[in-house]
Amino acid sequence: MSDKINSIIENLKSLTLLEAAELVKQIEEVFDVDASSVSNSSMVMMPTDNHNLPSNEIEEKTEFNVVLEEVPSAKKIAVLKVVRSLTSLGLKEAKELVESTPKIIKESTSKEDAEEIKVKLEEVGAKVSIK
């Protein structure tokens, strides 16, 4: 890599979470892009035909993503508190996450943990899905 790119990478490594979030916002505004819609665009899904496999060879899914689908405005503060307790996000980051639904709250978690998180969020009025 060139010295210029190495310098940029080193500067990015030193950013705080808040600074990184602000950088993303600025990049989105300046270049008129949406960083939230770009996720593994290079990933190719291969079709699978599980009908030909014996039933004992079909793998059961062991990792789940918990997605915050919708937050009623009247319940936003309660949901925000639960999101902060489930994640280690600060107030500003958790607020941004809650306001930009649908968003993944927890990635690659066990089914039990995913169900527990879903129950906690639904108790305070959020709509949650497990994928």
From TrEMBL:
Keyword Zinc-finger in record: no
Gene Ontology molecular function terms on file: mRNA binding; structural constituent of ribosome
Superkingdom classification of source: Eukaryota
Entry keywords, A to Z: Plastid, Ribonucleoprotein, Ribosomal protein
Residue span(s) of domain Large ribosomal subunit protein bL12 C-terminal: 64-131
InterPro entries: Ribosomal_bL12, Ribosomal_bL12_C, Ribosomal_bL12_C/ClpS-like, Ribosomal_bL12_oligo, Ribosomal_bL12_oligo_N_sf
GO BP terms, alphabetized: translation
Coiled-coil intervals, chain numbering: none
GO CC field: cytosolic large ribosomal subunit
Protein name: 50S ribosomal protein L12, chloroplastic
Gene: rpl12
